[in-house]
Design brief:
It is a single chain. This protein has a single domain, classed as TorD-like. It is mainly alpha-helical. The protein is about 70% helix and about 0% strand.
Length: about 230
């Protein structure tokens, strides 16, 4: 789930398109985990055999008691945990870059907020009119990576190596100056503070996935650049 092979220099575009699609799905999954309370759809997904196989292979741990609970029980428990972790009142872990960034002032609507918004809009995306949250919420940043890796997958599928270089450059830059710069440590904090295995284990996997992406994106960009000139 979070471990992936290094793309080799002779990797074919179809394989790279599939890998980008899988990564996009993971970004989308983590966006859903951190954006809202767990839905029935989310609970059905994490109880599915395919998800659990990948989850356990990646080192995740859910006890059987957790898996035996009904969706109604889990939804109630996870709603309480979601509020305690990310909303408050009381001590909580704000899921916003401006609060968590080591270079920020530890407050909402810091300079990082406009930085994220400007970056996303410069990349050709816009915030939905229905969105009422802050631009630098971790769910937004994961969702942006979900969408941009979809574009990467399409570029590989079409063997449009120039487009692949362009989107990978966007991915690498955003990962370096925004998402990986704060969200890895954010996820570690969640793992330590969480009382429920759902958020603790999924935050652990999210941090490992982001570490992997941070390391692999320069290699993927180099590979795309080599295919462009060859």
């Amino acid at each position: 789930m979070t471990v992936q092979p290094h793309p080799s220099a002779d990797a074919d575009p179809a394989s790279l398109a599939e890998l980008a699609c899988e990564r996009s799905n993971l970004y989308g999954f983590f966006a859903a985990v951190f954006s809202n309370e767990a839905s029935d759809e989310m609970l059905e997904l994490i109880k599915s055999p395919d998800f659990l196989e990948a989850f356990f292979d990646a080192g995740g741990q859910f006890d059987l008691e957790f898996l035996r609970r009904t969706n109604d029980q889990l939804r109630e428990e996870l709603a309480v945990e979601f509020s305690a972790l990310f909303l408050g009142p009381g001590e909580h872990i704000s899921p916003h870059e401006s609060v968590q960034s080591s270079s920020g002032g530890g407050r909402l609507w810091g300079p990082e907020t406009s930085g994220v918004k400007n970056f996303i809009e410069a990349a050709g995306f816009e915030y939905k009119n229905s969105y009422t949250g802050l631009p630098d919420h971790i769910g937004v940043e994961f969702e942006f990576m979900e969408q941009i890796t979809k574009q990467e997958s399409e570029a590989w599928r079409k063997q449009d190596f120039e487009a692949a270089v362009n989107v990978l450059d966007i991915e690498q830059t955003f990962m370096k100056i925004h998402l990986a710069a704060w969200a890895i440590e954010f996820c570690r904090k969640v793992t330590k503070m969480a009382e429920h295995p759902f958020y603790g284990e999924l935050a652990k996997l999210a941090s490992e996935f982001l570490e992997s992406e941070k390391d692999e994106l320069p290699r993927r960009l180099k590979l795309a650049s080599e295919k462009l000139v060859n």
